[in-house]
Amino acid sequence: MPRKPKAAAQATAAGTAATGVQYWLVKSEPGEWSWSDQARAPGGVAPWDGVRNHQAINNLRAMRTGDRCLFYHSGAGAASRRVVGVVEVARTWYEGEGEGKEAATGGAVDVRAVGEFRNPVPLGEMKKAAGEVEGMRDFALLRQPRLSVMPVPAKGDIATARPHFVESTLSCKVC
């Protein structure tokens, strides 16, 4: 088994909750792949591919079946930058089996739609929370805004509140 890259090892440690489930954030431009596209995929399952940044690829490789990911719409307009749903890792990292972007980037993980947020969480709210909630300052979304796959911090109040926050705000149209 290959040695786990240092960045992935740190991501794993940072994103693990008491339940052993890791929490991640995955970003997608709504024009390329939206929450609606994910929910409409057969069984809500689709590959998360096309990632080129090495740190983001290492984070994908660190994901395990059952891990949860916040589905974040990125984009040019501030209004579109928000967490809109939750997906679950259905299949861990696999090497590219197809053609095009998946094969070019080397692989993917499969994710399954779990639920859509009734009230999406805008980036502005997360930035505000960075000054109020312990651990939010470490969130890569606020430090490395171009990173497309990142762990959600598991420190202080976030570790306690995160699972409840995720589960209680979902509208399980696709559960």
Automatic annotation (TrEMBL):
<dbReference type="InterPro" id="IPR052181">
    <property type="entry name" value="5hmC_binding"/>
</dbReference>
<dbReference type="InterPro" id="IPR015947">
    <property type="entry name" value="PUA-like_sf"/>
</dbReference>
<keyword id="KW-0539">Nucleus</keyword>
<dbReference type="InterPro" id="IPR047197">
    <property type="entry name" value="THYN1-like_EVE"/>
</dbReference>
<dbReference type="Pfam" id="PF01878">
    <property type="entry name" value="EVE"/>
</dbReference>
<feature type="domain" description="EVE">
    <location>
        <begin position="22"/>
        <end position="155"/>
    </location>
</feature>
<protein>
    <recommendedName>
        <fullName>EVE domain-containing protein</fullName>
    </recommendedName>
</protein>
<dbReference type="InterPro" id="IPR002740">
    <property type="entry name" value="EVE_domain"/>
</dbReference>
<dbReference type="GO" id="GO:0005634">
    <property type="term" value="C:nucleus"/>
</dbReference>
